[in-house]
Amino acid sequence: MDHDERRRSITAAAWRLIAARGIEAANMRDIATEAGYTNGALSHYFAGKDEILRTSYEHISEATDRRITEALGDATGLDALRILCREVMPINEEKLLEARIAASLWPRAMYDEQMAATNRRTMDRWRAQMAIFLEQAREEGTVGDIDVTIVVEQLLNMMMGMQILGVLTPGETSSERQLEMLERFVTTL
Q: Where along the sequence lies the DNA-binding region (predicted)?
């Protein structure tokens, strides 16, 4: 196993701990144990817990963006917008796991400049993509005269809210309910 593979396995171990027991459970000793390494061995791959958490946060963003790209294919307009939103929303076990981890890491992202920068880049990318899809929808005649900037912010707020509520109240914020909310919102455009 090479250096990068070991970093990925350590990051995956941190993910499992955070998802199962919260961010406080992700101490270096427990991460090392979960990854199958000694505590001291982690220092060969990461400078410390903060770096592992930053890498975990970046990985969530990258994983979501990969899924979006793969799912989009040749979709445009409202079809593409729906796809992007569904890849962010916690509507299956994988996405719910990512939402649980992201929600655990958000408080750190408020104060850790590197994590904040990762979050800004992700949100900026999603905003730009959604704006393109909404402009395509306008050109296709599938939306009315909308304020694209406002609609993008409404969608982002709705998706982030779904991540929080999908983790905290999964019964009330089920995947079916999330998909229904998205569809009702999009059809009003």
A: 27-46
At residue 143, what are phi and psi to the nearest 5 degrees?
-135, 160
Structural domains counted in the chain: 1
Residue-wise pLDDT tens digits, 77-129: 999 999 999 999 999 998 998 898 888 888 888 999 999 999 999 999 999 99
Place of tokens 């406002």: 150
Q: What are phi and psi of 97, to 5 degrees?
A: -60, -45
* Residue 89 CB coordination number (10 Å): 23
DSSP 39: G
Q: In this structure, is residue 16 part of a structural domain?
A: no
Distance of CA 153 to the CA centre of its chain: 16
- Residue 1 pLDDT: 66
Q: Which of 121, 94, 86 is nearest to 15 (CA)?
A: 94
Range of the domain at 66: 57-188
CA–CA distance, 139 with 100 (Å, rounded to integer): 37
